Here is the input.
Amino acid sequence: MAAGTPYVIAIVGAGPSGIYAAEALSQQTEVPVEIAVIDRLPVPFGLVRYGVAPDHESIRSIRNTLERTLERPEVRFYGDVNIGTDLGIEELRSTVDAVIYAYGAGSDKRLDIPGEDLTGSIAAAEFVGWYCGHPDVHPDVDQPDRDIPLTAAAIDELISSSSQAVVVGVGNVALDVARVLIKSAPELTDTDMPDDVLESHAHKGIREVRILGRRGPAYTAFTTKELRELGQLPGVDVFVAPDDLGLDESSQAVLERNKVAARNMTVLREWAERTPTGAARRIYLDFWTRPTKIIGTDRVTAVEVERTMISPDGYVAGTGETHKVPAQLVVRSVGYRGRALPGVPYDDSTGRVPHAEGRVIRDHGFSADEYVTGWIKRGPTGVIGTNKSDALETVTSLLADISDGAVVARGRSGDLDRLLASRGIYPLGIGAWHRIDAAEIELGLKQGRRRTTLAHRSELLAAAEEDHKSNVP
Ligand code: NAP
Here is the structure.
């Protein structure tokens, strides 16, 4: 480690983008650093814990690498500290030498069609939060001020009373949602889903999932490995209408320049030729189909959809030809969106923090001490690894500014802890995570599972208690 007064850097958000930024900072040897990785949740890992589907264990295991970064001597995890409520942005900036915003895209895009708010119409973020055990969707009884309006009990009720689901969007999240909806409980036991979520799957009634793509099969956002997985589920027939696979000129051009799209097309063509096995569970991929209305009085009963085409100017357009698809559950999976954090520059038109190469733009110029990385920087795109190169770009900018003298070490070690302690806030550290991790493994083993996920904040705090107590005077 480099000698001298350390630069104290706060990273807001302990998801992959924040932790990759901490890794890049802690692995360089030119500049001495102290890094505080802050998260509003008691546990780190962001979307690796609360976004990656539980049946994608190899991707979830990235958390082991992320954990090693949080264990490095220059890095400290500050769990259960909410920037915006526990501490304002200006207060945070006054205790450190630079801040890197890495708080992701915590909101979802809407369809803006009639009926979207009916019971039974939900956002993928809510469903994903439910099956991953996010504390916002699994609130404690005395915790009413959540961002997500749907509770685990409501989702449990929805999936047990639905037999047909519609998933809108053809991205990787839509595939995750469709796969988890159609899989049976025994097929999900060997995951770390919370126990009560697994129990819900044992009595769910979903037999049919329809995935709607508003454009043609050349314009899919998912990756081929994830697509193929859907066609390999035992006891599930996958249907693609051969008529949907005809290629217009613009689709042809997409397939010629985009290898992933071309590979996806090969998979879809193979599925279109399959003879159904007569399986009780079915997944349909309907292209050139967009939802125009969600139908129902108290509860969703169907979705009105319209056939689409590509207009001469290259945009998707309705043909006016509509029909109804029966459904009791509609999950919109049309992408995430970044939120404004009070005090942080935000561009509402993009849902991102304005920046150049990770340097935050504030009042038409570069802010002296603010940087940004991850989804709140570039938008909700790419796979987890994309965040590594993204974080490197931001950290390279920060280190260049340090070497130019634009960011100065002001001997702020300990200021953040003192300010938090003055408010009675004692963050959960990486030791607390180790205890939670051990508790989740132990609890899982008791149920004959590899591990489980503690979903309620109170459960996480209880599991961390011994370690946390040692931090509190
Ligand atoms: P996404 O990849 O941006 O896909 C969004 C989909 O929604 C697109 O098909 C888009 O179609 C469609 N859409 C948008 N607005 C719509 C509307 N109003 N009506 C109908 N359809 C609409 O978003 P995502 O699936 O949420 O994924 C976010 C990121 O996480 C992606 O980079 C994804 O690859 C990544 N991820 C990766 C994995 C994995 O690697 N296993 C798993 C989950 C997520 P258009 O193209 O027509 O706009």
User: Anything to note?
Assistant: Residues 109, 111, 168-174, 176, 214-215, 219, 221, 223, 226, 290, 333-336, 380-383 surround NAP (CB under 6 Å). The two ends are 30 Å apart (CA to CA).
